UniProtKB/TrEMBL annotation:
Cellular component, GO annotation: cytosol
CDD domains to which the protein is assigned, alphabetical: YjgF_YER057c_UK114_family
Entry-linked InterPro entries: RidA, RutC-like_sf, YjgF/YER057c/UK114
Signal peptide range in chain numbering: none
Species for this entry: Castellaniella defragrans
Family the entry assigns: Belongs to the RutC family.
Protein name as it appears in the record: Reactive intermediate/imine deaminase
Molecular function per GO: deaminase activity
Length: 128
C-alpha cells in the first residue's frame, strides 16, 4: 500500500514524530493528526480561552484538509478530545457552526491532558 504525507505551513508543524496527515491508498482516504489551538506562525496556543482554542483547532484542521486537496465536506469521522467535558456544549456549538451538514460520524473523549497545555484537540478522517 502506498501512502502520501500531507504537510502545510498554514497549520502548526508537528510537535512530535508524526505527520499532519497521511493519505492512503492513492488519495482515497486521508487520516489527519490531531490539531490543537496553536497559531501556525508561533507554535503557541492562541489563547487560554477554551472557545478560542476550539476555533483555532478547527482552523488548523481545515488548513491541513485543504493541503490534502479536500474540503470540510470530505470529513467522514471526527474525534474531539476535551480536558473538561463540562465544556462539551460549547465545543459542540462551535463544531455545528463550522462543519457542514450532513455531519460526519464523531466521538468525543474526556482526557486528563493534551500537548502544550491545550484544552481541546480535533482529529479527522477524510474520504476524497
Amino acid at each position: 500500500m502506498s501512502k502520501a504525507i500531507i504537510h502545510t505551513d498554514a497549520a502548526p508543524a508537528a510537535v512530535g514524530p508524526y505527520s499532519q496527515a497521511v493519505s492512503a491508498p492513492a488519495g482515497k482516504l486521508v487520516f489527519l493528526s490531531g490539531q490543537i489551538g496553536l497559531e501556525p506562525g508561533t507554535g503557541e496556543l492562541v489563547s487560554e480561552n477554551f472557545e478560542g482554542q476550539v476555533r483555532q483547532s478547527f482552523a488548523n484542521m481545515q488548513a491541513v484538509i485543504e493541503a490534502a486537496g479536500g474540503t470540510l465536506n470530505d470529513i467522514v469521522k471526527l474525534t474531539l478530545f476535551l480536558t473538561d467535558l463540562s465544556k462539551f456544549a460549547s465545543a459542540n456549538a462551535i463544531m455545528a457552526e463550522i462543519i457542514p451538514q450532513p455531519y460526519p460520524a464523531r466521538s468525543t473523549l474526556g482526557v486528563a491532558s493534551l500537548p502544550k497545555g491545550a484544552q481541546f484537540e480535533v482529529e479527522a478522517v477524510l474520504a476524497l
